[in-house]
Each structure stands twice: as structure tokens, then as C-alpha cells.
Amino acid sequence: MPAIDLKRFAKETADLVEQFDQPAVFIVTLRSILDRYSNRTIHKKNTRFQTTGLPNMNVPDQVLTQIVIELNKASFPSTEVIFALLEHLWQEGTFESRLICARLFHKLPAELPETMTRLNIYLSQNADPAISRAFLRSGMRTIRLERPLAYLEIIQNWFEGDDPRLAVYAVKSLIIHIKDDLNINLPQVINLLIPEISQNTLAHQFDLVELVTALTEHSETEARYFLKETLRPPIPRTTQITFRKFSEQFPAPFGELTRDLLRMGAPHS
User: Fold this and answer.
1) Are 230 and 262 spatial neighbours (Cβ–Cβ below 8 Å)?
2) Which pTM was predicted?
3) What value does the mean pLDDT take over residues 228-254?
4) Mean of per-residue pLDDT scores for the chain
5) 207-213: long-range contacts at Cβ-Cβ below 8 A with a sequence spacing of 24 or more?
6) CA angle 183, 250, 226 (to 5 degrees)
7) Long-range contacts, stretch 233-238, CB < 8 angstroms, 24+ apart
8) Would you say residue 10 lies in a domain?
9) Measured between alpha carbons, how far is 257 from 111 in angstroms, rounded to an integer?
10) Contact residues for 29 (Cβ-Cβ < 8 A; gap 6+)
11) Per-residue confidence at 5, pLDDT binned at 50, 70, 90?
């Protein structure tokens, strides 16, 4: 990868941003920029290509971040223009183009049904954890902040839907909501989490420690309520095993509380 000439790069990104309303032209220019700053010294086996199946140009994140910053400054003339640009970025199909799409997704109006339809499609087609995190943190930021009730309705729909991947994303999104957002209805969030975690613990096992930690940092009282209700007898066997396995990593005193609840709920297990 060549060293980044800041003046040249600023000119390149400025030219790119001017093309946002011509998505086909925009993509051609973006390819050229990404190709210029691609790190070709990284062997293919060490890239994300092997884990996600997406072509990856190994462009430094500072390049992608600056492109997103400049695009965020742009004033899009219509919703159709934003939709068209995001769709071209997604269909380009590289790790970089899809990550940019995810980071810009918040530009879509939160009140439009098509916005969430598009989000569901993109997430269901995605297998890269970095891209899903970008959608859940940056892409959904507008709807979390501006339409919190609609956001929680989306989460409930993901839990009740037929795609188990969306249920996993729902828990990950709620963790971000708990950790990042000030305007949060924590009791309602917990009421959404309790049945999902108690019934489908195994699907969310690797998010369990982060979830309990986030709840604890937000409100120890609510974290205690979450654990007591989630581990209310009868406790499914997989839930017992999973919570016991990860309880050692819960913040004190919630690991001990978890084990006490498991003993009371399944004394002969």
C-alpha cells in the first residue's frame, strides 16, 4: 500500500462525494481509490476472504472512515438517491463497499417501512461480523435515537420472525442500545430479552457475558431482575448449562447470584 498523500486523498474523496447522485460512476471512482490504497503485501489466507467469502482489498480503516465522514457531510437531495447509492454499494459485493454501506445506512429516513425492509435484507445476506456490527451500531443509530418505540418493535419482530440470524442480531443490537444510548426504556428492553434468552440461550451464549455486564453497568437492580426472571423455574437444561458455564465471567456479585438461582431452580441437576 502506498503512503497516504493527505492532499491527494482529500481531493480524491471530494471528487468521490460529488458523484454520490451518480451511483454507477461513484462505484467506478470508489474502486479506483480502494485499489490505490490496497495493501497487497497481506497474503490472501490472512484476509477476511476466507471467513466471509467477500473479496477484500485490505484497505486501511482510516481510508474507509474518511470516505464515510465526507459522505456523511453530503446533503442528499432525496431518499431515492440514498437508496440507490446504498444498493450499488451493497451489490458491489466487496467487504469495503458493504462496510461503507453499513456505516451510511443511518442516512435513510427511519420512518420509512422500506428502510427496515432493506435492513432485514442486508442483514440476512451478510455473514461478516464487522459489517453486521456496523449496521447495528451506526446504521440503526437514527431509528434508535429518533424512534425508540419503533426500534423496540423491530427488535420484537426479529425475535418473533422465522430468521434465527435476526434474533441473534436483535440481542446484539439491544446490547449496543443499553451501552451507547441515553434515551432507553430499560424495563421494556429487559422484558423483550427475558423470554428470548431463557428459551434460546444457546443461540446467544457468546453475547451473554457482554449482555449481563451492560445491564449491570446501567442498573444493578434491573440486572438482578433480569437474572431472576430469566432463571425462574423450570429452567431448561441448555439454559442451566450455558449460564453456569459463563457465570464465572459475570461481574460480581452476579456470578454468585446466577449460581444460587441455578441451584434453587434445578437443585438435582
Assistant:
1) no
2) 0.89
3) 96
4) 91
5) 207/168, 207/171, 207/172, 207/175, 208/242, 208/243, 208/246, 209/246, 209/249, 209/250, 210/175, 211/171, 211/174, 211/175, 211/178, 212/250, 212/251, 212/254, 213/250, 213/251
6) 50
7) 233/264, 233/265, 233/266, 234/265, 234/266, 235/198, 235/262, 235/265, 235/266, 236/198, 236/199, 236/201, 237/269, 238/201, 238/202
8) yes
9) 41
10) 12, 15, 16, 19
11) confident
Cell numbers placing 172: 446484539
Q: Hey, what's the cell of 102?
A: 453499513
First to last CA, the chain: 57
- The number of domains in the chain is 2
Rounded to 5 degrees, what are φ and ψ at 168?
Answer: -65, -45
Is 152 a domain residue?
A: no
Asked whether the beta carbons of 259 and 228 are under 8 A apart, the reply is no
Cell numbers describing residue 166: 435476526
Q: Examine the domain organization and report whether 8 and 44 are in the same domain.
A: yes
The H or E element that residue 162 is part of is none
Q: State whether 20 and 120 are in the same domain.
A: yes
- Would you say 93 and 54 are in contact if contact means Cβ atoms under 8 Å apart? yes
Q: Are 179 and 210 in contact (CB under 8 A)?
A: no
Sequence length of the chain is 269
